[in-house]
């Protein structure tokens, strides 16, 4: 069983902390093709990391992945391909009806996997828009009707005060990249910014929070002291600053952290 309180995520009645990663179905050898051997390798690496969870960013993964999660005891935030909803014109009735049909397909396919503990209906939509509020409310309500036994969320990068979809989720999932996509190089700001982020979200919504994305890129073998962006030292220092705050807040209302990203993947760059 899965349940949510004001400050906890419960699995079988016991508090659970998501300690894991985001992934992509991509690899240097096969690209986006499915490969059973790489799947086993990935899950052995997840076990080695001590991970207990991941999010299927930003689409449903192959069913074999969920079968492995069931076998390994790794829980899943199952996300639909609701990514890129960045413009006002995307929040229309045609998109809404299609989005709800997609959620029906995802829930129908994956609902019998015990590893799936929460549905995510979108990644980083423009949830500060007025039209997004109604749109997300309808998709979330529809998903809850399809499966009343699991919590529903979406992953936001909007400001807590402006987010129109947050009132309808069961768990707040927040992406933030302090000292990476903003305040470049200023590692000393992370603890204050992250603490403020968590406190504002919780004070406003009184719901458990997952840090659903955070991290920094690094080039293997690139070193500099003091740390410079893209060095291994900078990545390590950034994560350490995040972990100070996460370790404090997990005693209160933060229920998980998912680093971006598990492994390198192909981009347009």
From TrEMBL:
GO molecular function, one term: carbohydrate binding
SUPFAM superfamilies linked to this entry: (Trans)glycosidases
GO cellular component, one term: extracellular space
Pfam families: Glyco_hydro_2_C
InterPro entries: GH, Glyco_hydro_2, Glyco_hydro_2_AS, Glyco_hydro_2_cat, Glyco_hydro_2_CS
Name of this chain's protein: Glycoside hydrolase family 2 catalytic domain-containing protein
Organism domain of life: Eukaryota
Domain Glycoside hydrolase family 2 catalytic: 2-269
GO biological process terms on file: carbohydrate metabolic process; glucuronoside catabolic process
Family statement drawn from the similarity comment of this UniProt entry: Belongs to the glycosyl hydrolase 2 family.
Organism: Macaca fascicularis (Crab-eating macaque)
Record field: transmembrane: none
